[in-house]
Amino acid sequence: MNKELNWTKEAFSREVVIIEGDQPVGGMHRNALFSFDVDAYLYDVQLRFDVTGFIRHSVTIYDRKVDNRIVGQITLHFGKRAELRLESGELYTWKRHNVLMREWDMIREGMTDADDRETVNYSLTRQFFADHGDIRVDDDSPNASIAVLTGLFIRNYFQRRRRRIVAAM
User: Fold this and answer.
1) DSSP 3-state of 113
2) What is this structure's pTM?
3) pLDDT in tens, 41-87
4) For residues 82 and 73, is the Cβ–Cβ distance under 8 A?
């Protein structure tokens, strides 16, 4: 899948919309106000991100179209790092470019560091009452949609966590 997509999240909304051209092709919906769990879809892929734990969260990804079969696990690290390990054995690393999270990537890990490949690049292009951004996908694997959705999920997870910490101060 080599695509140029856009994403938008309106202020105070629990919805993210993914657009190709002028057509919605995907989205994410956080299930409840105080929940981290998210339902997401892109093209024909439908996922559920199930967040468990109290202080140290873990995330299991379920395929909603195939009897809620587990397709991957996200490991969230302190210091704003995360890894996606798919059941197929593929490993992706989520990497942000700066502290404001205006640009971030999903990097598919290879056998060596030289084989690592940036497969999805995200950018936040506008932020006022709504977040708008671009997604560039250079991933031809069958799991590209999972990587795209996971990259957005992780960024939004860290953003919500940051807001909760600030609100508690």
Assistant:
1) helix
2) 0.89
3) 999 999 999 988 877 778 999 999 988 999 999 998 876 789 999 99
4) no
- DSSP E strands: which ranges in the chain? 2-10, 15-20, 23-30, 38-42, 45-52, 58-63, 69-77, 81-86, 91-96, 103-108, 117-127, 130-138
DSSP letter (8 states) at residue 107: E
Q: Are 40 and 29 in contact (CB under 8 A)?
A: yes
The SS3 call for residue 97 is coil
Residue with tokens 């140029």: 4
In 9-143, alpha helices (H): none
Residues for the chain: how many in total? Answer: 169
CA angle 30, 36, 40 (to 5 degrees): 40
